[in-house]
Design goal:
Elements (H helix, E strand, L loop, with lengths): L12 H14 L7 E5 L4 H16 L3 E8 L6 H14 L5 E5 L8 H20 L3 E3 L4 H13 L4 H4 L5 E2 L2 E2 L7 H10 L16 H16 L4 H30 E4 L2 E5 H5 L3 H16 L5 H12 L7 E3 L2 E6 L2 E6 L1
Helix pairs in contact: 1-2, 1-7, 2-7, 5-8, 5-9, 9-11, 11-12
The structure holds adenosine-5'-triphosphate (ATP).
Adenosine-5'-triphosphate binds next to helix 2 and strand 2.
Pfam families: ATP_bind_3 (PF01171), TilS (PF09179)
Family: Belongs to the tRNA(Ile)-lysidine synthase family.
InterPro entries: Rossmann-like_a/b/a_fold (IPR014729), TilS/TtcA_N (IPR011063), tRNA_Ile_lys_synt (IPR012094), tRNA_Ile_lys_synt_N (IPR012795), tRNA_Ile_lys_synt_subst-bd (IPR015262)
Length: 331
């Protein structure tokens, strides 16, 4: 029977969509486990908290929340407390508030992100939660991909954010930001609007407010979905290449005095994308360091353009061609 009570949350398409996304993301977690929603108080994470408060118990799970106070702006403690109270009102328990120190290392955005993730994972360990849910949306994903494209990133970073990696889950990577806002409105929730999200000093805000709308308009719409489709395809391709590289590495690598050697002939017979991955993988496993694309290409030339040139010196690693072998030793 239809209700005339306007205060009752309505099961609108946006609410249903957010719940569906959370339901799918929780699948695979054990019954009886605790999941934590990472909450800023913004529309995405507030909609996430509401959807998880609904779906979690139906999947036999307990739902808590964690709010990080970056202490970067005046009134941040009140903003964090408001978000925490909203989470408690939705039935989340426990709700943790963690104040962090952001040291500014690597730029303000990166430093805040690093401090935030560290605090979220620490809180997870404290309460032994099975997962921390983050409210990144399809729009966030498209922004990440576009920024990566413009900066010449490789497929591993162009594929964007993972829906599930380690303890982190991002149920809303299939949900549009407009729908998280709508879901808040439909459930009578009042999110906090972070002024930084539209602050022109931040690249992401400029991409969000200026670049994407123009692209969308000029290309006739659908740009956000298109960018994330590209990311999905890149992820599949890159995962396949990583798999093949892993498969080959055992046959190609031999341990040598103070390092390792790779068979140059076998490496040369691989297509460049695979060859470069094998080189990177070998270096990563032996020296625990990631080569840049430029460094990888330089090493690769000792395989494909060998004319007796001398060794290459990378930070901490010497790479030399010796006969049919490529020799990597600690410098
Ligand atoms: N201060 C915080 N405390 C806890 N979690 C946070 C905090 N800030 C961000 N997060 C988590 O990371 C997600 C992405 O944050 P980000 O700031 O990139 O996006 P957003 O679009 O502003 O999200 P929201 O609308 O939820 O604030 C959020 O949805 C939330 O899950």
């Amino acid at each position: 029977m239809p209700s005339n009570d306007d205060r009752r949350p309505r099961l609108t398409p946006a609410v249903a969509d957010t719940r569906r996304a959370v339901r799918e993301s929780l699948a695979g977690l054990d019954e009886g486990s605790l999941v934590l929603v990472a909450l800023s108080g913004g529309p995405d994470s507030l909609a996430l908290a509401a959807a998880t408060a609904f779906e979690g118990p139906r999947a036999g799970m307990r739902v808590g929340g964690v709010v990080v106070d970056h202490a970067l702006q005046e009134g941040s403690a009140e903003i964090a407390e408001t978000a925490a109270q909203q989470a408690r009102d939705l039935g989340l328990d426990p709700v943790l508030v963690r104040r962090v120190t952001v040291d500014g290392h690597g730029g303000p955005e990166a430093a805040a992100r690093q401090a935030r993730y560290a605090a979220l994972l620490k809180a997870r360990a404290e309460v032994d939660a099975a997962a921390v849910l983050l409210g990144h949306t399809l729009d966030d994903q498209a922004e990440t991909v576009l920024i990566g494209l413009a900066r010449g990133s490789g497929p591993e970073s162009l594929w964007g954010m993972h829906p599930a990696i380690g303890f982190l889950r991002r149920p809303f990577l299939t949900v549009r930001r407009a729908d998280t806002k709508a879901a808040c409105g439909d459930q009578g929730l009042e999110p906090w609007n972070d002024p930084h999200n539209h602050d022109d000093r931040f690249l992401r805000a400029r991409i969000r407010d200026r670049v994407l709308p123009i692209l969308d308009q000029e290309l006739g719409g659908g740009v956000v979905e298109a960018l994330t489709r590209t990311a999905d395809q890149l992820r599949e391709d890159a995962e396949a290449l990583a798999h093949f590289a892993q498969e080959q590495i055992g046959d190609l690598v031999e341990h040598a005095e103070g390092g390792l050697s790779l068979h140059a002939g076998a490496l040369a017979s691989n297509p460049p994308a695979l060859r470069q991955r094998i080189i990177r993988l070998a270096v990563q496993s032996e020296f625990h360091t990631s080569l840049t694309r430029q460094q990888t290409l330089e090493v690769s030339r000792l395989v494909t353009d060998w004319h007796g040139q001398g060794p290459i010196h990378l930070p901490g690693i010497r790479v030399a061609r010796e006969g049919s072998l490529l020799l990597f030793t600690a410098a």
